[in-house]
Amino acid sequence: MAQIITMPRLSDTMTEGVVATWLKKVGDTIKTGDILAEIETDKATMEFESFHDGVLLHIGIQEGQSAPVDSLLAIIGSAGEDISALLNGETATETKEEKVVEEAKPTSAAVEIPAGVKVVTMPRLSDTMTTGTVATWLKKVGDTVKEGDILAEIETDKATMEFESFNAGTLLYIGVQEGDSAPVDTILAILGPAGTDVSGIAANYKVGAVVEAPKNEEVKAVAQEVVVVEQSTSGRVFASPLAKKIAQDKGINLSQVKGSGENGRIVKSDVENFSPSAVVTPSQAVTEATNAVAAVKPFVPAGEVFQEEIKNSQMRKTIARRLSESKFTAPHYYLTIELDMDNAIASRNMINGLPDTKVSFNDMVIKASAMALKKHPQVNSQWREDAMVINHHVNIGVAVAVEDGLMVPVLKFTDQMSLTQIGTNVKDLAGKAKSKKIQPAEMEGSTFTISNLGMFGIQSFTSIINQPNSAILSVGAIIEKPVVKNGQIVVGNTMTVTLACDHRTVDGATGAQFLQTFKAFMENPVTMLA
Q1: Residue 507 is a catalytic residue
Q2: Is 503 designated active site?
């Protein structure tokens, strides 16, 4: 029986996906575990495996194209199987609104569930989660499952969490394939006695629209054309994401690696077995180039316009949308102040001289901000159309750069933490954010945000407010320069910070008073220990 594969939803903000590469073409035999395609999400380009055996009968989204979530991606079935009913599942007279209503109707009520059979649905892992993505299945159909066994790893746009089974039995059916996403409460799997027929249950729980697509012959022709272009284009390296990651870690140029995979694709083993001995050294290249130049006519300048178009990832689109909404809905203004950091440097050196103690300047900035917010709660506010919300608790979000984007872990009740507790928590949350293991609850509820680019040598900059916060503090590098103290020019250390404020909630005088209090704490760190 033919299986419909749809474009997965890989985060709760994702509305479309891009097929980066098709690794199979119409007519190819597919085995469970084969990689069908590489799909670009808002986090990464991920390999999309097949969990079905059969023949690839139809491709609904061509390589390089994007399509909405739940669009028809592919159909896998038996060779020669008639799939016209699947391709024409939506009649010409059916309107879009009627179709949405039909899809929203639950059909599971009409199915009688046999004794001992348990339907497992997509869990809601946070109060804002509407969809989930199966990052990894740790069990396969036919496996015996015990209570407490890990069935799968479920991913949102904020975290990846292990999902335990609360039932024992045999895994009879998988409703959401690895890499695919589905709304909360839709069928994830079915457990029960071995050999139980659950096809009726599975069919009635299955949700998803069938999208009109070109006929097989047209798809095949386009797919063949794509392959030819891929083979003739020298600017793109055809490699799996894992191979790219290993190459990046080892400092290997993928253009020098010969691929052993399908259509010359570079796979993990190619990178691991790569030997640079076969690569031309720089000195050899110079010699060969010199000899070649001597043999040709004098050089005549002839330039060529060259441009490269890189499609926006889903994460970049999400960041662009959210920051644009903040910038164009909140009237930003900026206040900048310079701090004398001599006492902060001396205090930090003294603190770090204690056993098992490590405090960074960023930790001091977070602590000073938290204490200043308690004295100026209007900066710790949120704007609503009907009211201004003043937060008397302090939850500081700390911007962390991750691959292809930005995440903001939140330190809950920051004002109640010591400097060392702040340092420990920031390090822990930043590590989780970069490895995509941070929990949704650890990303929610910020009342104020700090962005620090000082470690990159940036002296000053402005940030866009992380709504619904009313302000964000941009922290620059500590600079050694001549300063005036007691009427004398001496060498001093300064740091520039800029506060971006939402003028709807924070007036200029209020923002300035906050910065004066912040400055007092930073320039006299002993006051933060009281």
Answers
A1: yes
A2: yes
